[in-house]
Design brief:
CATH superfamily of the largest domain: Dihydrodipicolinate Reductase, domain 2
Number of helices: 12
Structural class: alpha/beta
CATH architecture of the largest domain: 2-Layer Sandwich
Radius of gyration: 24 Å
CATH topology of the largest domain: Dihydrodipicolinate Reductase, domain 2
Strand order of the largest sheet: 6-7-8-5-4-9-10-12-11
Largest sheet: 9 strands, mixed
Shape: globular
Number of strands: 21
Helix content: 25-40%
Number of domains: 3
Strand content: 15-25%
Distance between the termini: 61 Å
Amino acid sequence: MFLVSQAESLRQLHQNHLSNYNNQEQQAIELMGLLNKLYNDNDVQVTLFGEAIDSASVNQVLALHEKAATRQQGATAIDINDTVAMVRAISDAGIQSASIDVGQLIANNTDITSALSSLEGGKQNGATDVVLYGFGRIGRILTRLLLSQASTTRGLQLKAIVVRPAAAGDLAKRASLLERDSIHGSFNGTAKVDEDNNGIIINGRFVQVIYANDPSEIDYTAYGIDNALVIDNTGKWKDEAGLGKHLASKGVQKVLLTAPASGDIKNVVFGVNNDTVGEDKIVSAASCTTNAITPTLKVLNDEFGIDNGHVETIHAFTNDQNLIDNYHKADRRGRSAALNMVITSTGAAKAVGKALPELSGKLTGNAIRVPTPNVSLAILNLNLKTAPKSAESLNEFLKDVANSHQWQSQIAYTDSTEAVSTDFVGTKHVGIVDAQATIVTDNHATVYIWYDNEVGYSTQVLRLAAQMAGINYAKLPA
């Protein structure tokens, strides 16, 4: 009798859980429809604690809500019913060109009606033509990020990719490399070759492929492209003279470099010093490592003060190394990347000083390339002016920062005892603090930061690109 009763109880428990989850699934389906309509019709982007939910699957939407509930100890869980109700209110308000974080609004018990009233009648964003000059690792990740979103007639519009002249069959190989990635998996969509027009149709959008050895060879207006933002992924030119070649091309308005620049070109880490970008025609998005560490260095310097320090980067190997031992013009990089840890130099620590002048000359840096293809780790060894009380208190501060609306897109936080590098493949957060590794001894602190040196960095590049294109969103919370 007891066994029968227990079996019936477990059956009922299973049924209740299933019914509850089915309910949530229906809410998630409705939410996705609302979000896609807001994005397409109103240019309104809705996030949950900084994470996009408009193009996610049903299970991903529910997982984001579950994840949101564990952000802070004692925090109220974010119920998907609350999210749907708030997004309905946003949809009914008819606002334009806004970025709204419903997670923060719900967590802070915000009256959405009064909050939205200040955003009504927002200015509509126009469209900006984008050209990717180069189609390597970063170029393809940028393409995925730009074209995985629902189609829209506003914002950044990828119109062309420029590559060096190649043999027959090049288009098919380019499309295949976009669709299949050994690190990030299959592309969320389709890429079909259009041989007649020398382009690739990616998720229904035609992208011209232009073959050229130098920017001076290209007239973009001949391809229907004008006032374009060129994102140079090649790293071939890093100064004003070289990158200025793009501006000499007909149809180009501005240039964004995905590498550290030299000379007077601004090296910008979005979220830290992007307010310095005015009418600059040429801007650098600095490096993946500089973007990963600078936000955390800024908040630590603001809170505790940094006397000096050293940054050691454990970096995934890159395409400029040899797979097997062979000649290389740089020291050590000729040795097999797949078999060796390779000590090399990095300009990331020095570049921090360009984004954060108050830290100029205070940091040294080195890098070790290791036999993993993606996700890197930066170790910040810092001497602080004010000593944290303990590693626990420092972690608590960093967790609060990561959960704040100001920094949630740049800084993330994990206290998992099982976290390893592959857990962070594909993360759009720029740097993830590993709380389990934090060390504090008197005024010396050691902080470990994981980062996807491809996707995290590319996300920052697109944020900066949107700013350079003059794309603005009214924000909630402000």
